[in-house]
Design a protein that fits this description.
mainly alpha, 2 helices
Protein backbone atom coordinates (compact mmCIF):
# COMPACT_ATOMS: atom_id res chain seq x y z
CA UNK A 1 0.00 0.00 0.00
CA UNK A 2 2.90 2.33 0.67
CA UNK A 3 3.81 2.28 -3.01
CA UNK A 4 0.25 3.40 -3.83
CA UNK A 5 0.50 6.32 -1.38
CA UNK A 6 3.86 7.32 -2.87
CA UNK A 7 2.56 7.09 -6.45
CA UNK A 8 -0.55 9.13 -5.58
CA UNK A 9 1.71 11.67 -3.86
CA UNK A 10 3.71 12.20 -7.03
CA UNK A 11 0.53 12.81 -9.02
CA UNK A 12 -0.43 15.91 -7.03
CA UNK A 13 1.88 18.95 -6.92
CA UNK A 14 0.47 20.00 -3.51
CA UNK A 15 1.99 16.90 -1.86
CA UNK A 16 5.45 16.60 -0.45
CA UNK A 17 5.78 12.80 -0.40
CA UNK A 18 2.59 10.77 0.01
CA UNK A 19 -1.15 11.09 -0.42
CA UNK A 20 -3.57 9.15 1.74
CA UNK A 21 -6.75 11.29 1.72
CA UNK A 22 -8.37 13.11 -1.15
CA UNK A 23 -7.49 16.80 -1.02
CA UNK A 24 -10.98 18.10 -1.53
CA UNK A 25 -14.20 17.70 0.32
CA UNK A 26 -17.82 18.02 -0.54
CA UNK A 27 -19.90 17.95 2.65
CA UNK A 28 -23.12 16.01 2.26
CA UNK A 29 -25.97 16.23 4.73
CA UNK A 30 -27.06 12.73 5.70
CA UNK A 31 -30.68 13.61 6.24
CA UNK A 32 -32.49 10.53 4.96
CA UNK A 33 -32.14 6.76 5.18
CA UNK A 34 -31.70 6.59 1.41
CA UNK A 35 -28.79 9.05 1.46
CA UNK A 36 -27.14 7.23 4.36
CA UNK A 37 -27.49 3.91 2.53
CA UNK A 38 -25.97 5.36 -0.66
CA UNK A 39 -23.01 6.77 1.29
CA UNK A 40 -22.45 3.46 3.07
CA UNK A 41 -22.48 1.59 -0.25
CA UNK A 42 -19.96 4.10 -1.65
CA UNK A 43 -17.68 3.72 1.38
CA UNK A 44 -17.95 -0.06 1.34
CA UNK A 45 -17.06 -0.19 -2.37
CA UNK A 46 -13.85 1.84 -1.97
CA UNK A 47 -11.70 -1.23 -1.26
CA UNK A 48 -13.24 -3.00 -4.27
CA UNK A 49 -12.70 -0.02 -6.58
CA UNK A 50 -9.08 0.23 -5.40
CA UNK A 51 -8.59 -3.43 -6.35
CA UNK A 52 -7.73 -4.58 -2.83
CA UNK A 53 -10.58 -7.14 -2.68
CA UNK A 54 -13.17 -8.62 -5.01
CA UNK A 55 -16.12 -8.10 -2.65
CA UNK A 56 -16.61 -5.31 -0.09
CA UNK A 57 -17.29 -7.78 2.72
CA UNK A 58 -13.84 -9.35 2.18
CA UNK A 59 -12.01 -6.20 3.30
CA UNK A 60 -10.96 -7.04 6.86
CA UNK A 61 -11.52 -3.56 8.35
CA UNK A 62 -14.76 -2.74 6.55
CA UNK A 63 -18.16 -2.72 8.22
CA UNK A 64 -19.68 -4.14 4.99
CA UNK A 65 -19.70 -7.64 6.47
CA UNK A 66 -21.69 -6.38 9.47
CA UNK A 67 -24.49 -5.31 7.17
CA UNK A 68 -24.87 -8.87 5.88
CA UNK A 69 -27.26 -10.79 8.09
CA UNK A 70 -25.63 -13.33 10.37
CA UNK A 71 -22.01 -12.34 9.76
CA UNK A 72 -19.52 -11.69 12.51
CA UNK A 73 -17.16 -8.75 12.06
CA UNK A 74 -14.05 -7.19 13.58
CA UNK A 75 -15.84 -3.91 14.23
CA UNK A 76 -18.64 -3.08 16.60
CA UNK A 77 -21.29 -0.93 14.94
CA UNK A 78 -22.82 1.96 16.83
CA UNK A 79 -26.01 3.34 15.32
CA UNK A 80 -26.81 6.98 16.02
CA UNK A 81 -30.40 8.08 15.69
Amino acid sequence: MLSTFIWKGTQNKRNKDFQFWQQHNHPIELNSKDRIDRCLRYIHQNSVEAGFVGKAEDWLWSSAKSYMEGCEDKMELVYLV
